[in-house]
Design a protein that fits this description.
This protein is of the alpha+beta class and 127 residues long. It has a single domain, classed as Aminopeptidase (3-Layer(aba) Sandwich). The protein is built from three helices and six strands, in the order H-E-E-E-H-E-H-E-E.
């Protein structure tokens, strides 16, 4: 169901292998109504294709698509990630103006794990 309501962007290598993707989907409230928030999801880049700008390009495409939704009341784009496992992705999100709005340490041992919630204000233009 999440894929049916969202918009997804992919990078394909040699016309058949998906090597990167990013998408947006509406965040729904507990009563099933679409909220004013959208979720950035399915962000992934194959290890052989990292550090080439694919992730930032696809995320920027997703942000542009989400900004079109502001006409219909969309205000923020949200994402959730793990700080320790996704450090390079966190730096990318912060370069793209996502702001940490909540952190929660969920584990200390055997390896620390901190969940980060990010928001991007869609009403603020990137120009």
């Amino acid at each position: 169901e999440i894929f049916e309501k969202g918009t997804y962007f992919v990078a394909v290598h040699e016309k058949e292998d998906v090597v990167a993707c990013a998408g947006i989907t509406p965040k729904t409230s507990s009563d099933g109504e679409s909220a004013s928030e959208w979720i950035l999801c399915a962000v992934t880049v194959h290890p052989d294709f990292r550090c080439r700008g694919l992730g930032s390009h696809l995320i920027n495409m997703a942000i542009s698509e989400a900004r079109k939704k502001t006409v219909f009341g969309a205000e923020t784009l949200e994402l959730v990630t793990l700080k320790e496992k996704m450090a390079s992705a966190c730096r990318l999100y912060e370069r793209l103006d996502f702001k940490v709005v909540k952190t929660e340490k969920v584990r200390d041992h055997p390896m620390p794990m901190t969940v980060l919630w990010y928001n991007l204000d869609l009403r603020v233009s990137d120009n």
